[in-house]
Design brief:
Strand order of the largest sheet: 1-2-3-4
Order of helices and strands: HEHEEEHHHHEHEHEEH
Number of helices: 9
Bound molecules: pyridoxal-5'-phosphate
Length: 272
């Protein structure tokens, strides 16, 4: 993988994942503030109305990756963002069989995007559009069931001594829980666990290998549950001394089956 440009090199400046330091990082050549909320892996939630106020005072548009909510749980344009980007690959299609992206923008930014497919020559196929439109018919029922399953899985994981931290913005212990509850209709199926002290990356790998119902995969948002050993991809904050981490996507399987599977896999690596 290419190393990410660091602050002061190239044209990208990274801010903290909760955007609390954005104002101090704005430069004369800043053209766009691009954010993701909740942030991948750790689910930091941005105070978007506050961020947009700061950005707009400097005449800078705000673009947000809204794949987590896929437009169902969160409406960034209503909160002040100019551009919302969604990987339709995930919840909108919902069946892990399409790769597609969606850009939603306000009237002012739309004019910049209008000519883009023609200028760059990219387009999307009718079959892929059909699959996403078909998937969207069940978006609400899938998202509601996934949230219910995820809540149940999180409640179970909280009882396990092998796990130190659960990163899930619905938990009151999550650092940005209040903003999440204010601005989001609910949670999707993403969560990350950090194992307790003494557990190694090898334990985390053994744990995920022992899972029967969780596939190993990065592209979440389908019907199926996934688990991957991961490291938070952060440059403005150091997470290298923490972990090991496993990221989950909770799917549409029976929650009790998932819980039993997680339980037997944790038993295999437990130090208790
Ligand atoms: C997966 C993902 C993307 C990109 O999705 P693809 O359609 O697979 O390229 C973008 N943003 C977030 C937050 C994602 O999780």
């Amino acid at each position: 993988m290419q190393p990410l440009p660091q602050q002061g090199q190239g044209d990208v400046t990274f801010c903290k994942a909760d955007c609390s330091d954005v104002e101090s990082l704005i430069q004369p050549n800043t053209k766009l503030i691009l954010v993701e909320s909740p942030g991948s892996i750790l689910y930091e939630v941005i105070d978007l109305p506050k961020l947009c106020k700061i950005a707009h005072a400097h005449n800078i548009p705000v673009a947000i990756d809204n794949t987590y909510s896929s437009g169902y749980l969160y409406n960034p344009l209503k909160l002040g963002a100019d551009i919302s980007v969604i990987a339709a690959t995930k919840y909108l299609s919902g069946h892990s069989d399409v790769t597609m992206g969606v850009v939603v923008c306000n009237e002012k930014e739309w004019k910049n995007f209008d000519k883009l497919p023609e200028a760059l020559g990219f387009t999307t196929s009718p079959d892929d559009c059909y699959l996403v439109l078909r998937g969207m018919r069940t978006l609400a029922v899938r998202m509601n069931q996934i949230e219910k399953n995820t809540d149940e899985v999180v409640a179970y994981l909280q009882t396990r001594p092998e796990i130190k931290t659960i990163f899930y913005p619905k938990l009151p212990t999550h650092p940005n829980h209040d903003i999440f509850m204010r601005d989001y209709k609910g949670a999707s199926g993403m969560l990350t666990i950090e194992f307790a002290d003494g557990y190694t990356k090898e334990d985390a790998v053994k744990f995920t290998d022992a899972l029967k119902y969780f596939a190993c995969g990065a592209s979440w948002g389908g019907y199926e549950s996934l688990a991957t050993v991961t490291v938070p991809p952060r440059t403005a904050t150091d997470w290298s001394k923490r972990g090991p981490f496993v990221r989950f996507h909770i799917g549409l399987e029976d929650a009790q089956d998932l819980i039993e599977d997680l339980g037997q896999a944790l038993d295999k690596i437990s130090h208790k």
